[in-house]
Specification:
It is a single chain. The chain is mainly α. It has a domain of 69 residues. 61% of the residues lie in helices and 0% in strands. α2 packs across α5. The longest helix has 18 residues.
């Protein structure tokens, strides 16, 4: 499974939240996974971590904690977003084209 899929994230978050004793190992594995991804894509991991605050607005390691244990986002499909805002009285502007991925 890809890291970005909501089902994968859901499973990781449940395991991380439920099993306190293995949290450090999960954090270590996840951090290694992210850093390996940077190396594979030929990005400098040290520079990435050093500049992370300016890129994302928070500390790299704090963001890992949020990704593993928190819900800093809520997954929603294109249709769910349109329905939500339509019920609130909003509509798409003329000429705006949005395609689902």
């Amino acid at each position: 499974m890809k890291e970005g899929t909501s089902s994968f994230r859901e499973k990781v978050k449940k395991i991380y939240s439920k099993h306190h004793i293995i949290r450090p190992f999960i954090k270590l594995a996840y951090t290694a996974y992210l850093l390996l991804g940077l190396v594979v894509t030929k990005k400098n991991p040290v520079g990435y971590i050093r500049n992370y605050d300016s890129l994302r607005g928070m500390n790299f390691f704090t963001d890992i904690e949020d990704r593993l244990g928190g819900y800093p986002y809520e997954h929603a499909s294109y249709e769910q977003i349109i329905t939500f805002y339509s019920k609130a009285g909003y509509s798409l502007a003329h000429g705006l084209q949005v395609r689902s991925i």
